[in-house]
Design a protein that fits this description.
With 243 residues, the protein is α/β, with parallel strands linked by helices. Helices cover 30% and strands 20% of the residues. It has six helices and ten strands. Strands 4-1-5-9-6-10 form a six-stranded mixed sheet.
Length: 243
């Protein structure tokens, strides 16, 4: 009896050159290593990901990515690497380019591992892939428990009047009594490639979620985020090497 073929799972890391919040963010050292290296390392440690491909418009990032063990088989067009470029279109471009370079071979699972969540664990990525493979989801993303609730302490302003984003049907006096809500994180995404190619948005199909702890869900977007990441990394290293 022949064994079933292992799904063709490719991990993609999207790292454009322009970054205004944190200049040269994707290759800036964090704990002595380029930020992108930490995403590549997690992908390399995954038992499910077979290839690691970096999509970038920047030659320096491409060089660093190759030195860290990733492939950079194509460069992203400048039109897909602007501040306002939808990353969904960069996802599509990467899938299409790789399939052409692979002679038409189709991906079974597309995995996005953003550089900006350096505290993630490999299990967070693998859990997304497994959930996709074991369910009818079109896409699986990671979430963390939200600190604010639209039912309790998040408001919209209408002139100088404030109202709850989602007015509850009955009075809610504590955040704990409100319905549980979650923040989408940038820890990992796993999707069916045909869904990325045909859908127009992340939530256009059936989306499932993997919950990750807050300490692994940090998303670096500002200098303060970067400093906080340095603190969390130092604390993690101290816990792993107390002496």
């Amino acid at each position: 009896m022949t064994k079933p073929m292992q799904p063709y799972v490719v991990g993609f890391i999207f790292a454009r050159g322009g970054s205004k919040g944190v200049p040269r963010k994707n290759i800036r050292p964090l704990g002595g290593r380029p930020l992108i290296a930490r995403a590549i390392e997690v992908a390399r440690r995954s038992s499910l990901i077979q290839r690691i491909v970096v999509s970038t418009d920047n030659a320096e990032i491409a060089q660093v990515a190759r030195e860290c063990g990733a492939e950079v088989p194509f460069l992203r067009p400048a039109a897909l690497a602007q501040d306002d470029s939808p990353e969904w279109l960069a996802w599509r471009h990467a899938i299409q380019e790789l399939e052409v370079l692979d002679g038409g071979r189709k991906l079974d699972v597309f995995v996005c591992i953003p550089t900006t969540s350096p505290m993630r664990a490999v299990e967070d990525v693998d859990n997304c892939v497994r959930t996709l493979l074991e369910t009818d989801a079109d896409l699986v993303l990671t979430v963390k428990q939200a600190e604010r609730s639209p039912y309790f302490n998040m408001v919209v302003l209408e002139g100088d009047n404030a109202r709850l984003v989602i007015p509850p049907t009955t009075a809610i006096h504590t955040r704990q009594a409100a319905p549980a809500v979650y923040d989408v994180t940038t820890v990992a995404y796993a999707a069916r490639p045909d869904y990325v190619l045909r859908a127009t948005a992340l939530f256009a199909g059936k989306v499932k979620a993997v919950v990750v702890p807050r300490e692994r869900a940090l998303d670096i977007d500002t200098e303060l985020d970067f400093q906080f990441a340095e603190f969390l990394l130092a604390r993690r290293l101290l816990a792993e090497n107390p002496e």
